[in-house]
Design goal:
By secondary structure, this protein is α/β, with parallel strands linked by helices. It has 5 helices and 12 strands. It catalyses: (6S)-5-formyl-5,6,7,8-tetrahydrofolate + ATP = (6R)-5,10-methenyltetrahydrofolate + ADP + phosphate.
């Protein structure tokens, strides 16, 4: 499978990704501004079948769809964590999170647990900027989730669930060889499995 990078070159791919992110951010903001309560209903439905399996979600920032209601429910059954950035070019680590736990400011405006208590999740709820119907995602550009999924998947089966508004879907995404595919994408209206 040839990627867009091998066909266009790195600079052109960088420009394509920047344009795709800009368009996706605009669609995501519109969806965020008009969302109705219960946007995480399908995610709760999916995760009900995995109670007790170590799970990582994320602390939503800006206009990201909010996984916290589902994470709170999952925390009653097993470990739930949130990502903690370790540094540029490094995989994420996941620190245990509880709905009423103390938080501190982390990089990029996301909150992280006050005290680090790291573990390796087997299911990741992955934030994203855009996705396609083949299970590909466009993130923020740091490669954190791609490196993390590659590492976790080298050790054990790890499920990656992209969580997004349906409006974040794109027809075609610019891809690189290092991009890690998602196993599932859940929106406020649909569940897509790959």
């Amino acid at each position: 499978m040839a990627t867009v990078e091998t066909q266009l070159g790195h600079d052109a791919l960088t420009e394509l990704k920047a344009a795709a992110r800009k368009a996706a951010f605009a669609r995501r903001k519109q969806a965020f501004d008009s969302q109705r309560p219960g946007a995480s209903g399908h995610l709760a439905e999916v995760l009900a079948g995995y109670r007790g399996v170590p799970l990582a979600g994320y602390m939503p920032i800006r206009t990201e769809i909010d996984p916290l209601p589902v994470m709170s429910e999952a925390a009653a059954h097993g470990p739930v964590g949130v990502p903690v950035i370790q540094g540029a070019g490094q995989p994420l680590k996941f620190s245990r999170w509880t709905p009423d736990g103390l938080l501190r400011d982390g990089p990029f405006g996301a909150k992280v647990p006050e005290v680090d208590d790291y573990f390796e999740p087997e299911i990741l709820i992955v934030p994203l900027v855009s996705f396609d119907r083949q299970g590909n995602r466009l993130g923020y550009g740091g490669g954190f989730y791609d490196r993390t999924l590659e590492l976790l998947r080298s050790k054990r089966s790890t499920m990656a669930i992209g969580f997004a508004f349906g409006a974040q879907e794109a027809g075609v995404l610019p891809l690189e060889p290092t991009d890690q595919p998602l196993d599932m994408i859940v929106t406020e209206t649909a569940i897509l499995e790959f």
